[in-house]
Design a protein that fits this description.
The protein is α/β, with parallel strands linked by helices. Among the domains are: 53 residues; 233 residues, 3-Layer(aba) Sandwich (Aminopeptidase). The protein is 40% helix and 12% strand. The strands form three sheets. An eight-stranded mixed β-sheet has the order 1-11-10-12-7-5-6-2, sandwiched between helices. A two-stranded antiparallel ribbon has the order 3-4. A two-stranded antiparallel ribbon has the order 8-9. The termini are far apart.
């Protein structure tokens, strides 16, 4: 009898053990499956984020990298009602291999540094990606923004820790020569009296509509430096001269312009190049606070690319080409891109080839905001490169002034027409 009871107890314990083991295996299996699910979910999220940010995998980046004829044919396949007027161009093996390489590995065949950037800390890769293509734009060659090797010694700087750029520390924003005409009685823009029988030339009068500044104000050009130094930066002969020229030409076209030539390395105690946009942001905010009439904002730079990538001959004259930069850290970057597109397309019409397109930048290797969240009509413009001359840059400034003033007056007309309609 005792033996039977003992056997029954052993049987019950065995059943409980088997049940426990089955339950444990089920729990372990569920835990493992849950872990795999969340790992896959995280990987999918990372992949989606990378795909969204990558110019190669984005529709705009793809459209910019292939020919207009090829992209038009793709649209025709999806939308029968759409008829492309572009002639189909061959999709080269170079384009195919470049797209596949960048999509699968993030390695840009046109930029050898990208092979090592993932392994060597501190090696920055140019993360600029093409949003809108210009005539003759090489998709493998984008703008480069290299930090200066060194700056000229700054005498008399006290050892302060702040980053204040108040009027005690630098130059005042420079006012371009203003038009002499006063606004008319209605409060709208007045005009300059033309010749006999000619229409009045529009003008903003004494108000300033455009603000021009330079986050990297000492960017210069090798041909303009007497010592041909390794670092093309100068305290006196630099990109601020191009900004001044642009402001003057805008004024000649009736558009009031304000130009800031603040020398930040001198103005900022313990100046740090990587904080350039923090310093210039304060400049822009002060300008906005001081004038409610400002509408367009331009941060002019000199690019670091070589001459063959930054120069175009138009009607026998050489011009410094321009890159338009849009920061994708700005949540409303599409509005800034739309503004840049107006200028880009107007330049392409009047000066084919002078624009190397509109490029986007992420926070991977740059500021990625560029003060563009302060105004929708704000854009960073790279004018020429290290091997261009001041004369070539001046010609480009004249071209920019021509199209910018045309856009400004067209916008003003639209606003006036809307006011009359309401």
């Amino acid at each position: 009898m005792k033996r039977r009871v003992m056997l029954l107890d052993i049987g019950r314990e065995s059943k409980r053990m088997r049940k426990f083991l089955v339950t444990g295996r089920t729990f372990a299996l569920l835990s493992f499956c849950s872990m795999i699910f969340f790992v896959l979910l995280g990987v999918a999220g990372m992949a989606h984020q990378q795909t969204t940010a990558s110019p190669v995998n984005s529709m705009k980046g793809f459209a910019a990298a292939v020919s207009s004829g090829f992209f038009g044919d793709m649209l025709e396949m999806e939308m029968p009602a759409f008829q492309s007027s572009q002639t189909e161009e061959p999709f080269t093996a170079k384009q195919i291999s470049s797209l596949l390489m960048r999509a699968l590995t993030d390695i840009n065949p046109g930029d050898p540094k990208s092979l090592l950037a993932g392994e060597l800390p501190g090696m920055s890769v140019n993360d600029a990606f093409l949003i809108r293509k210009g005539v003759g734009t090489d998709t493998a060659v984008g703008p480069e923004d290299n930090a200066p090797i060194t700056y000229d010694p700054i005498g008399g700087l006290h050892e302060g820790a702040g980053t204040d750029i108040s009027n005690d520390h630098g130059n005042e924003p420079e006012q371009s020569p203003a038009a002499t005409d006063e606004p008319d009685d209605t409060g709208s823009t007045g005009g300059e009296e033309g010749g006999k029988g000619e229409p009045l030339k529009p003008t903003t009068g004494g108000s300033k509509a455009v603000f021009i500044y330079h986050s990297h104000n000492r960017e210069s050009w090798y041909p303009e430096l007497a010592d041909q130094s390794k670092d093309p930066n100068s305290k006196t002969k630099n990109i601020t001269l191009v900004g001044k020229r642009l402001a003057q030409k805008l004024e000649e076209n009736g558009v009031g312009a304000q130009h800031s030539n603040t020398d930040y390395p001198t103005a900022i105690p313990k100046y740090r190049w990587e904080l350039s946009y923090k310093y210039s942001m304060k400049t822009v905010k002060e300008a906005i606070a001081s004038s409610k009439d400002l509408k367009f904002f331009f941060d002019l730079h000199r690019d670091s690319q070589k001459r063959k990538y930054t120069t175009i001959d138009i009607d026998g004259k050489s011009y410094a080409q321009v890159y338009f930069i849009i920061g994708h850290k700005n949540p409303n970057w599409e509005k800034n891109e739309a503004f840049a597109t107006k200028i880009h397309e107007a330049l392409e019409k009047k000066y084919p080839g002078i624009s190397r397109g509109i490029w986007g930048k992420t926070a991977a290797s740059g500021n990625a905001e560029y003060n563009q969240s302060l105004a929708s009509d704000s854009v960073l413009i790279e004018v020429g490169g290290v091997d261009n001359t001041l004369e070539e840059s001046y010609r480009t400034a004249d071209a920019l002034a021509e199209v910018i003033s045309s856009i400004y007056w067209a916008d003003e007309k639209v606003s006036a027409d809307k006011g009359k309609a309401s």
